[in-house]
Amino acid sequence: MDTRDTPEQAELRRAARQLARALAAGSVGELDDTVRAGRLAAAVRDAGWLELRDDGGDGTPLAGGEEAAIVADALAGAVADVAFSGPVLAGDLARRAGLPGAAGAVVAFAADLVGPAVVTGAAITAPCFAVDPDPDPAHADAALVLVGDRDADGHRLARVAVTGDAATAPGTDLTRAVIEIPPGAAVTEVSGQTRLLAADDLAQWSALGLALTTADLVGVMRGVLDVTVAYAAERKQYGVPVGSFQAVQHLLADAHCLMEGSLSVALHASWAVDNLAPADALEAGRVAKAYASRAARTVCETAIQVHGGIGNTWECIAHVYLRRALLSTQWFGDDGVQLRELAATRLGVRA
Amino acid sequence: MDYRDSPAEAEFRARLRAWLADHNPGLPASSTDDEYWARQAEWHTALYDAGFFGLSWPARYGGHDLPTVFDVILDEEMAAAGAPPRPSLGYLVQGISTHGSDAIKDRFLPGLINGTERWCQGFSEPDAGSDLASLRTTAVRDGDEFVIDGHKIWTSYSDVADWCILLARTDPDVPKHKGLSAFAVPMDQPGIEQRPLVMINGVTKEFGQVTFTGARVKAENMIGEPGEGWRLAMTIVSHEREPGELGYVARYAKTVKGMEHEVHADPGAFRPDQHEAVAWAHVQTEMLRLHVCRRLSERLDGVDHGPGGSIDKLLMTWVEQTVGSAALSVSGARSVVDTEDVALKTYLYSRAQSVMGGTSQIQKNIIATRILGLPTS
Lengths: 351, 377
Known about the structure:
By secondary structure, chain A is α+β, with helices and mostly antiparallel strands. Chain A has helices at residues 7-23, 34-46, 65-77, 85-96, 199-234, 246-275, 278-306, 308-311, 318-330, 335-347; strands at residues 106-109, 118-119, 128-131, 142-147, 156-161, 178-181, 187-189, 236-237, 240-241.
């Protein structure tokens, strides 16, 4: 056992954090800078990160769950407004169906965002949602859905048109889009599939989704704590920095510990994706997501509290982190969902 | 990043698992039952004789010179087998190893590690808890000996200890942190009296208080230099804060496993909030297991994380108290009608974790100022 980054993983972590720091918005105002956002998107695409889970040629992905999580963590740490996990998850699903690549595409989720939309007819009948699509229409004019087939022992993939514009869609998360795909949108077959998606494929894919959303939450916690600790050391009241007051120090110490504990479960979940049996990888993801969801909520709320009045204004970046945490928490299910699933598998509780 | 066993680790795990299958003494938890303490020495000796104790400590003193990650395997397998946790002595070994002379190490480490000599730790006093450096027990030089007078409290295992690692004031004329020295004091002598201190969960064998009235210790039993006592104490408490050193993951996992077993037998007999409490206790315990894996892996570089032990201590405290609360929830009304309810005792014991080894508030002060770099007021 050695849970440390390999030299290559450490280099990827360093490079991804550096890129995110250089090109992400440093303030709420800079989120409106479309030139900067375009440069960030191009840099992420040019680095090849959107294809990390595409087919490497022999059916295995180009990179492991660990590498994908390292990038997700780094981008979230700077609240980078760029699509990453959405396209990566689409690439992973396409690879499992035997498709050579689905770079830039996105997966359509059911309305609860816990799992992929499953359709049976020629058009969708319930609203579904494209989460974290690449804003470039050349890459994400369609989303992948699963075609339910009761007679076969697996799912096929189909496409449903995405008509909204990710670049302008207003969302709760100011850094990643969620586009609603309305009922009635046509479902078209994807040609070239060589494999049906079996239960194990979907378990591993969900494990990847849980690992990426957990890594995102860890990045959010680290980023918002860096901002908040710096603020507490600088902001003065009663003639001294507010960070010198024990009441404030203890809030931040608690938050720091929650971030460290979350990192420990997140690293394991990212490793588990490709290295444990599907059911075990999924359980590792559920443990990690349950812990980090609760932790991130507390850490982001602490950040807003320590920023005081300014923390409750739109211009303070703390809520950008909180909003990102809210989406990452819901995507693939929040702590309540994960605990319910763990109770089902570990305690035999039936719904 | 690799959580799998190396070939050597896998071989060790298999050997340990086979041994545990035949040698689990089936003791109750240390936190809830005096029987554990009555038979702990037996368990220590059995582990040591089978080659499963002191894995990461020097072979010269009875250890095995293995990387600390082997301790993770030990704790995982003991938890899986439902075996009692290993005796927590790592912090004493670290303190003596770091500060003792070769003569001290040769004299005391083998007996400490093989379990033939048992130790207690005489640090806290009635008026010196968090403010340990203000302690008032004195050690006054008298020829080749020091004479000790004072009162120690919350002294674990004082009733069975052969030796006490004692912190005493040897120089009253210097600032309080600088006048302390540490000694290995023999417990079996007329000047020492020890009495048990009953914990809130009724356990009588863990805590004690010890009075020293003209007790004597040889000058050669001083550990470290005169005035080095504070630094030795800090070495010990920083290791005492680390779940990897203590092996507590096995204790928590054992409790969670018991709760899961109970609920799984008839899930419908428990409410959804009880299901969730048990699932959350599992999540917390897994977090700590994986956190220890990460910390011990970091040590493969030889990195000592210093104040990081305070992070680990807080995480460990939250885990223990989450597990304790879940036990109380699952037990429900049984916890108030049955005074011997193990869940109640587990819960009550968990409240000590945010005090022992330095309160949670002290840990937060350390994290805020030494890790986050926040200014002191």
